[in-house]
Amino acid sequence: MNTLPVVRSPWRIAILIAGFTFLYAPMLMLVIYSFNSSKLVTVWAGWSTQWYGVLINDQAMLGAVSLSLTLAAATATMAVILGTLAAVVIVRFGRFRGSNGFAFMLTAPLVMPDVITGLSLLLLFVAMGHAIGWPAERGMFTIWLAHVTFCTAYVAVVVNSRLRELDESIEEAALDLGATPIKVFFIITLPMIAPAIVSGWLLAFTLSLDDLVIASFVAGPGSTTLPMLVFSSVRMGVNPEINALATIILGVVGFIGLIAWWLMARGEKQRQRDRQRAARG
């Protein structure tokens, strides 16, 4: 049986190249201009690494980076805990009174504009401060609460989709053999949804690290995150130091992505070898 050769349209290839160029050419220019010796980012004056040295000695920038990383890690951890519990309630507990309202309120932050979410949380914190005296002032803790609020919704959606794909017969067999529901969750369910939990943690970490709008509403003096600092710096003009920082972030993200791709490729090859051994056996 003859098979027709696959004909690739040159227009599709051209559109694909144009799309990737539009996405990644600005990043490439940013990396190149991070090695520019001129203070003006639009004027090339030769190769230099001086802005990386300036970045290392910039205590305000390093403080913002440390604060953002700490917030992102704490937010992702709490969002994973709450999001996983919420997903388990939605998928495993079935229909209960208020289940539709619970699901709606859980997913509402996904479609709520950041301006509305930030303003609502600001009004909430101010009202609570006047009513009960807590929080006394806005800062890192209020940013953390705000980030957990909207990151939990993303984690719940990721874990929810994974839970619906699981075979419940394994859990039911463990229950029939005398295992308690708590033990079944930690010994069977949790390992099977671990990839979704890791994905949710990484997603929440990225969202928290990248947030600007909500953090601007609920932040206080001395709690400037990295996006807030970068935005305030860019408003006065693009600083070559920002290019150096962005280049480092791109390098770290690219390195982590490369490791993740290598691990997934390695795991896929191992699964293929296992299937071949099972077929031969």
Automatic annotation (TrEMBL):
Please give the InterPro entries that the UniProt record associates with this protein.
Answer: Bact_Polyamine_Transport, MetI-like, MetI-like_sf
Main location per UniProt?
A: membrane
Topology relative to the membrane, per the entry? Multi-pass membrane protein
- Known Gene3D superfamilies for this protein? MetI-like (1.10.3720.10)
Membrane-spanning regions, if any? 12-35, 67-91, 103-129, 141-163, 184-206, 244-264
The places in or outside the cell where this protein is found are: Cell inner membrane; Cell membrane
What family does this belong to? Belongs to the binding-protein-dependent transport system permease family. CysTW subfamily.
Report what the protein is called: Putrescine transport system permease protein PotI
Organism lineage: Bacteria, Pseudomonadati, Pseudomonadota, Gammaproteobacteria, Enterobacterales
